[in-house]
Amino acid sequence: MTEMVHGSIPARDGEPVLPRWWRTVDRWSLSCALLLFSIGLLLGLAASPPLAARNGFEPFHYVERQALFGSMALVAMIITSMMPPQLVRRLAVVGFAAAFLALAFLPFFGTDFGKGATRWYSLGFGSAQPSEFLKPGFIVVTAWLIAASQDLGGPPGKRASLALAVIICGLLAMQPDFGQAALVLFAWGVMYFVAGAPFLLLTAIAMLVLVVGAFAYNNSDHFARRIDGFLSAEVDPTTQLGYAAGAIREGGFLGVGVGEGQVKWSLPDAHTDFIIAVAAEEYGLILVLLIIGLFATIVLRSLIRLMRERDPFIRLAGAGLACTFGIQAMINISVAVRLLPAKGMTLPFVSYGGSSLIAAGIMLGILLAFTRTRPQGEIGDILTGRGR
Fold it and tell me: Which of 130, 131, 275, 298 has its CA 20 to 30 A from that of 7?
């Protein structure tokens, strides 16, 4: 029994928290996150001064706020990554309940800040977007439900998690925020697939998503405008997609030079949704590939470490967190190069935004907590019989 619990990795009784955390955490993923935040600050220095000038602020107003929110995100990430999985799960359930209630009350107390979608609460000194904080909590709760359903006599966790995902997607569609709704469904699908879902069921769900998309296209002007703009053979150069495409072409391989880019003066969301266009114009393909490589490293290393995990809850939650973190980055970059319609989705740790930065810090902190090396044997021990 001792070997089954502790495996080949010795436990060190009485070891201080910080040395144990540093010894067990995935330092490569941690370093990638710090690099992404540093790149975000660098790009913020280039992208945000024009916006500050238009709004009557000091030139580096938004950079200072990004540094503040980013520092809070890093602190949240590190503290969360030090917690044991059981404590992370308890706190995630409480956080999910609070974010869910905040999301439900958005139609009554939220604001759209003139963007046509009621996604935020105005706090006077800033704003908060509940859907950003909902995602990590939803993933942890869903993994808990699905893992519990695999126990003998366990609850119908798979059906409950699907019902929860559908309710959340309905609330998000009311804003409307189809991008975040797609992320929620994607996260649920990843965890359901990892848990051994039938392929036919996943195919049926994918078909249902297409049907819902067609319904949204016919009944939401906001959704239809974005799809029509994406499908149009020619891009209007005065639209956000047009400005982004032009900036990426201008940047080429090496970029036009630090501070020499022009897209930040004409693109309203250059510091948030289209920050990759600023990176491509001023620093070229090299920086874009570096950003993609950093995200890929975090996702792949996390999935590799999770393959050795015995606890089904941790495997499911970790897979959902890693894949959602990666797909959000992929969607943001794909929108900028016109592979996907505009989604209004930030690039984690790089884009400006208090809610997105702090929520990304919490999400990655949970992922780091779940992928830490713990005193247990690997999943392969069970398959080979060494864990008995």
Answer: 298
